Automatic annotation (TrEMBL):
Gene3D superfamilies: Globins, Nucleotide-binding domain of ferredoxin-NADP reductase (FNR) module, Translation factors. Consists of two distinct domains; an N-terminal heme-containing oxygen-binding domain and a C-terminal reductase domain with binding sites for FAD and NAD(P)H. The lineage of its organism: Bacteria, Bacillati, Bacillota, Bacilli, Bacillales. Keywords: Detoxification, FAD, Flavoprotein, Heme, Iron, Metal-binding, NAD, NADP, Oxidoreductase, Oxygen transport, Transport. It comes from Halalkalibacillus sediminis. This is Flavohemoprotein. One of its GO terms (biological process) is response to toxic substance. Residues 153-396 are annotated as: Reductase. NADP(+) binds at G278, V279, G280, L281, T282, P283. CDD domains: FHb-globin (cd08922), flavohem_like_fad_nad_binding (cd06184). The record marks Y36 as: Involved in heme-bound ligand stabilization and O-O bond activation.
Amino acid sequence: MTTTITSGLDERTRDIIKSTVPVLAEHGEAITTHFYKRMFADHPELKNIFNMVHQKEGKQPRALANAVYAAAKHIDDLTVIAPAAEKIAEKHVSLNIKAEHYPIVGKYLLIAIEEVLGDAVTDEVIDAWGAAYQEIADLFIKIEKEKYDHSPWNDFINFSIAGKVKESEEITSFYLKPVDHRALPSFKPGQYLTIKAEIPGEKYTHLRQYSLSDAPNENHFRISVKKESGRGELPAGIVSSWLHDQVQEGDIIPVSAPAGDFYLDTEKDCPIVLLSGGVGLTPLLSMKKTAEKLHPGRKIYFIHAARNGSVHALKDEMNGENTFIVYEKPSDEDQAYDRKGIVDLEWLKTVVPKEADFYFCGPEGFMRAINTSLKDWGVPGERINYEFFGPQGNLD
């Protein structure tokens, strides 16, 4: 769904906002980094919502800077940024962001603009950005209310770990069932769950999204989680390590409703090509299993890339005549794979049709290479679909 966004700002205000575009291009990330620092200092409770690893890595400030820049650039016609707005709103709902959070964000965004730019920013500019922020915030609140109204539940509800299965050296699957025995809602294959990790010894909770790795069913949700390695005060793998090392069958984890705008179009029957790298297989495996169930005759091509067989999870669920396994560095024990090396365009042309819908997910380098290959091949943009794990990035 694409939301039409029209601006109610007067021409003078829009002109002022557009005049700040070059400044945002140069200083946007400095502004958003300062924004988060000031906001968390005064409202540390918001650390329960935001991913502090992404803060530390600079991913979240960078993503916000890009969003602010795009809003300023297209202030005359915000419909241009509607697809990005939908993605952001979908993520906000999964994190249980509410209307009362927006005034806090607006306050500290304006403070950051003033403090970073200093004398270069006038009261007129601050007033214009205050009006623009309020309008954009109101639109997000409206979009998110519609999503909340259609969600099977809001906030987080408790799920028990009904099963824990080691799938490879790095990936473990967790089978989740609601504690209150409610009927499980369906979801769109490719979507994710948000879990609230309440880790012993941690001052704040950690919210993380994990793709649903099974087709919709009445028995369970399944997520398959890679144990990330990280070091330092707040390592990248703090939640995945907790899941792998501490969470056991019978434990309780709060979970939000399925969400996400990367999913298989189940209304179509054209061929689909699923390309995954590493743990990026999780949403694509859900797509594969769902498509096989709904459209048994639909042509499905699945290409999975991994370092070797020891880290290749869920192998038994990847069977099929059009499934291809690519190991970059196969071990001596690896036998069941189709290609050594990487997925490149020359080989891709020999195993999948160009006239298909393409879905891919994996490490950013893998996705960048696949995206470039598909564009070089001439695959239309509307047939190219991908998912970032974390803040939205840019593959171009």
